[in-house]
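Changelog note: in this version the structure field was regenerated for every chain. One regenerated record is shown below for reference.
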Amino acid sequence: MAEWKPIDELFDYEKGTLQSSKCTPGKYTFITAAEDWKTHETFTHDCEALIFAMAASGSLGRTHYVKGKFISSDLCFILTPKKGLRLDLTFYHRLFNFLRADIVKRTATGTSKLAINQTNFGAYKLPYFDYEHQLSFRDKIETIASINSEFSEGMDYQLLLLDKLHQVVLQEAIEGKLTSEWRKQNPHLIRGENHASKLLDIIRAEKDHLIHEGKIRKEKPLLPIAVEESPFSLPEGWIWCRLGEIAQGFEYGSSTKSKEEGKVPVLRMGNLQNGCIDWDDLVYTNDDAEIEKHLLEFNDLLFNRTNSRELVGKTALYESKEMAIYAGYLVRFHMSGGINPKYSNYIMNSPLHRNWCDEVKADALGQSNINATKLRDFRFPLPPLTEQEAIVERVEKLIDMIDELRNQVTERNGQSEVLMQSFLQEAFAE
């Protein structure tokens, strides 16, 4: 039967010494947190050891096995058996990687960037038994890990399909396909004075009035959308227009230095998740001038204008009555003329918008960047106001169903992890 002992009773461990930026290729192994290794001109250790990634975002918790001359990254722990203990490091290498998610969950700390807490890591318990049993359990670990991996991959695939279904729902919504029956039943709500072109005329008149009163500044006219520019055909009652024609604001956020504690949150790109504001991992500010200048209002939309392909273009609707401001790499704007902000948010998170971002994001240096001027040019499919409400009602029901399925998959995945942990303990108790 195995005993469960803290890591610091089984292993001596120390932090690696070499920064990746100071690596000079050579004949010795340089082990980093990443899956692939490098080389270096000198070495610090000549032994059998485990290398555990303790601070490297996507690589956090990865464990390498090494034997021979090597040097390790300063983002890793180097683990060697305690003096007097006989440990099969091949077995423990497999065990560490099998328990990777659980180790990270129980030992990592931090807000904006997770890292393994050394004290928590040392206290984490692993099974320990005589050397012969360690050897015999090598294959058992592989079998358990293989089963768990196949199950996890199946869950990940189901979540991927649900994400794709979410995108299909949004795209069909903004093409008018989800409300085709509604239009047949309500022809009077999409024609005449209810046609989207009339709504656009009203918005233009309102903007001209605000410009005349000096409440907003006059902006450079936007080019009309040519027929060949239209991404797809629109239903009766809809029109194509530029986002800048029907929205106002387009203001960049605050450049104030944020703090871990303060009186008002500063929303950043990481807080824009799936069209909503994620209130985890917040930073704050106490700068009254910046708070007054960049204070968000209910139903503002926040657009991430820079960073990687996956992040640039992300948009979220601000539906909180709590005070918050937004960071400088976000653009805040709001819709005019009573245009439904939820419908607008669906547009900004749809494949239509994602594809447009891919077309226009590169700046003169080839970096991902969509500034406020570019954003105003986005081609926006505008339905009549009442149909916008019908679309939102329909999409919310479908998204709720998808989210419920996603929760069920996630719950099953969590149950699988618990089952695997129980199975592991039972296996070691034999």
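Spot check on this record: DSSP finds 13 helices and 21 strands in the chain. The CA atoms of residues 23 and 348 lie 43 Å apart.
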